[in-house]
Structure formats: structure tokens, C-alpha cells
Amino acid sequence: MLPNLQEAKIRTKNKVDIKNYHLDPKYKNLGLNKKYYIKTYGCQMNEHDTENIKAILEQMHFTETTLMEEADLILLNTCAIRENAHNKVFGMIGRIKHLKETKPHIIVGLCGCMAQEEIVIDEIMKRYKWLDIVFGTHNIANVPEILNKSLTKKQLAIEVMSIEGDIVENIPVKRESKYKAWVNIMYGCDKFCTYCIVPYTRGKQRSRLPKDIINEVKQLVKEGYQEITLLGQNVNAYGKDLDIDYTMANLLNDVAKTNIKRIFFVTSHPWDFTLDMIEAIKNNDNVKPYIHLPLQSGSNEILKKMGRRYTKESYLELYNLLRSSIPNVSITTDIIVGFPNESDQDFNDTLDVVNKCKFDSAFTFIFSPREGTPASKMKDNVSLEIKNQRLQQLNKLINKYSNEANMKYLNKTVDVLLEKVSEKNPNMLMGYTDTMKLVNVLAPKDNIGKIVKVKIESVKTWSLDGKIVK
Ligand code: SAH
Ligand code: SF4
Ligand code: F3S
Prior knowledge:
Layout: H1 5-8, E1 18-20, E2 35-40, H2 44-59, E3 63-64, E4 73-78, H3 83-102, E5 107-112, H4 118-127, E6 133-135, H5 143-153, E7 157-159, E8 167-169, E9 180-184, E10 186-187, H6 198-202, E11 206-207, H7 210-222, E12 227-231, H8 248-256, E13 262-266, H9 275-283, E14 290-292, H10 300-306, H11 312-325, E15 330-337, H12 344-357, E16 361-366, H13 384-407, E17 413-421, E18 428-433, E19 438-442, E20 451-459, E21 464-469
Parallel strand pairs: 1-8, 2-3, 2-4, 4-5, 5-6, 6-7, 9-12, 12-13, 14-15, 15-16, 19-21
Antiparallel strand pairs: 10-11, 17-18, 17-20, 18-19, 20-21
Helix pairs in contact: 8-9, 11-12, 12-13
S-adenosyl-L-homocysteine binds at residues 81-82, 195-196, 233-234, 267, 269, 294, 296, 334, 336, 365, 367-368, 370.
């Protein structure tokens, strides 16, 4: 089946099917004596999908390698959010082609959000017919079958469904970390911001049942996990699609009762943030004071064209409420510059919001037209040069405030979950505070996996340095 953006846009009131994954025993030994290599390009959800794909492959007795050159199966788990994500993947496919020429037996596959795009599939059919498998975001549970087909038929097998999507429970997972875990609470997105491809590549919003989420977290507590991040494109809208009266605030309260040490959640669309959620953050010690609250633009005109459904004023009101009601809260954001016809005044409005909010940090992007989205058809009179200038100007301001926000931590003692040896210094460990600040810590290695008290001794724009205190 091939992807179709028109079909992917359809939303019905049909009930979401909840299926259960199980591996058909006839595929159990498909990976015997074979190695797999998988590269991930996208967001946390994409990374979590990789954790699922890895576990499925290992059930089939594939073993993982981090060296692409020695793999029998190479998978690229792709992202479609911006043009440069595309370019990286096609560059990589070019490299893999050489490998395949010397080792024709290897299986090469593309999956993730790019696989859901018509233009990508067209390109693959035209220029990359030598690929072996392509599967979409709705087809992960069928990986064993898809691989089997490819091994027996020896021709390009494409399995992409442009559907609203269902939910498959009990897909195995090989988690990257032994201490912190991602937990999907919902799939898809119904917001259809005019610039964004995600509602097309990930289907309609489907919330998992509360009991399935809570059981997963309980299991993680049993396994010794210290931290979870609840994942969704717009977690604040969690539950709106369920038949029961149950909200994100309810979920936060119930997940908190599992006594997992730290709970984070991303991403929060400002539109759906409720007062009950603020209460849930305040009332549960283990729901941590970190909120990612994408602004996208500070101009009401642009926000309207983006279909974001809030204004500069209502964003600021929510922002100030969060700051004043949640002690020590850290708030980060996403901002797009160069949306079609963004004027100097529009851009200045964005700078104005940044000056008012003084975000802890931000991801900033130049608008990238995504084929099939409404914004890609909008007329644009802004040159790339100006867009680049705006991005630089914005980043400068963002960095100034990141630095200021980090300075507040100097000489303070904070809780850090130590994850692993620091990349920049082998004598240090790295981890995050409960406000999502990256910290490099002078501490003995046996502290890995623990939440420890750290005194911050120096501050940089991107990170903090400190030492462990008793
Ligand atoms: N669901 C999240 C966003 C996921 S995508 C939310 O609504 O907040 C992550 C970020 O990528 C977005 O917040 C946006 O800033 C950026 N982005 C999405 N589409 C884009 C595009 N076409 N061009 C540039 N940036 C984009
Ligand atoms: Fe994209 Fe908007 Fe959905 Fe976020 S809320 S995934 S930006 S459509
Ligand atoms: Fe990219 Fe898909 Fe995530 S487009 S940002 S991998 S949902």
C-alpha cells in the first residue's frame, strides 16, 4: 500500500481499535545469526518507536550492531518535519547504496514519518528502487511480516497505511536507558497547524487507556526506573478522544500515585493547558516543574495563519500564570521564524514575547514548507537572507536568557539523576535536574542511576557544572 496525504487528512468519529501485539512463531528465527543497525532521525516519539523496533527485531533473534558496515539489516527511522531532515536521509541512502553494491544480501529499509509522505515514496520508486523495505508509522507491529516478505520475494516491499490509525498494546521495548523511560500516552495529532506534517504522518489523536499507561509505569517502577516522560504531540489534550471523562490532570495525578520518582511530560500545546493540570503539578512532588510550551510566533497575525488558536496575549497570560503558581518552574519553547510573509513587525512581536518570557531555553527554526500542508501554498515575500538574519537575532536573545536562567542555579543545590559518564570529561557524570537542566557532575561512577544532590559551581549557556554533596 502506498501513502496518500489526502486520505491521511481524513478524521472520522470511528472508534479506535486497540490491538495486542504478538509475534507469529513462524518468524521467530528470521534474524538468527544476523545483525541489525538502526539510525533514528526524529523526535522523542521517533526514538521511542526505534526502541520498539529494536525489541521486535531481537525477539526474532537479530542482534544489534552500532557499525552500519557489519549489519545484515539497516533501518533508517526518519523524520519529515523540515526539509533538512529529508536531505540528511537521502544523503545517507546514497552512502548505503555503495555498501549494498559490495554486499547485495543486506536488507535496507526506510521507516518513520518520511515513509508516510507521497513525495518520498515517489522518489524512492524513481531513484531508489534498490531499497528492500519501506514501512510507515502505523506498521511497526508488522515488521516481522514485512521482513519475511522481503526475504522471500526479493523485491521492494512498501507497507504504508494512510489511515487514522489504531493502538497496538504490548509491543516489546528495548529501552535506551535503565533509569529513565519514555511512555507514550497518545498517538497522532488533530491540531493541523498549517505548517505541520505530523497530523498526516502520525494519524488522528488516539489516547491510550489510563490503565494501560499506569500498568506500564508500575512495571517500570518495579524494574527500578527513576524517571518517566509522558509522550504525545499535544499531551494536554490527552483523553479528549476517550469515551470516559478523564483528562491529562487526572492522568498526572494517577501516574504520580505509582511513586515513580520523577515525571515529565511533553509537548504542551498552550491551547489545552488547564488549571487542573497546574494543580496536579503543584500537588504532586514527583510531577516535576518543567514545561515545554511552544510559542511558534509572537504575532497574532502569524499565529492565526498558523492555526495555533491562541494569541500573543493569551500565551503571555498562561505563561505568567505558570511562572507565578509553580515554584522554580522551568519553561522552554519552540519558535519558527520566516513563516510566509512574516513582516518586521511580526518578528518584533516574537522578540517582544521572548523579552517578556525570558525562556529557560528554546528550539528555533526557519519555516520549512512541507508538501501537502496549507502553509506550503501560502505566498511568501521574505527572502532566505532575511530569515537567516532573524534566526540569528532570535538565537542571540534566546541564548542571553538561557544564560540568565542558568545563572540562577549558581551555588544552589539541586537534585540530579545521574545517567552516564559525561561526554566532555571522563571524570564527570552527566544528568538532568528536575527542571531539565543538563549538569556535568564530579562524582564517582557508582552514582550512575541515582538521584543525588549536586552543588552548582559554574554556569554555561547550555549546561551547569557541579559536584556531588552529601
Ligand atoms: N507537537 C508539538 C510540535 C512537534 S514538531 C507542538 O505542537 O508543540 C516540533 C517543532 O518543530 C514545532 O514546535 C515547530 O516549532 C517546528 N516545526 C514544525 N513544522 C515545521 C515547519 N514546517 N518548519 C519549521 N519548523 C517546524
Ligand atoms: Fe504539528 Fe501543531 Fe500537531 Fe504540534 S500541535 S504536532 S505543531 S499540528
Ligand atoms: Fe519528525 Fe515525525 Fe517526530 S515528522 S518530529 S519524527 S512525529
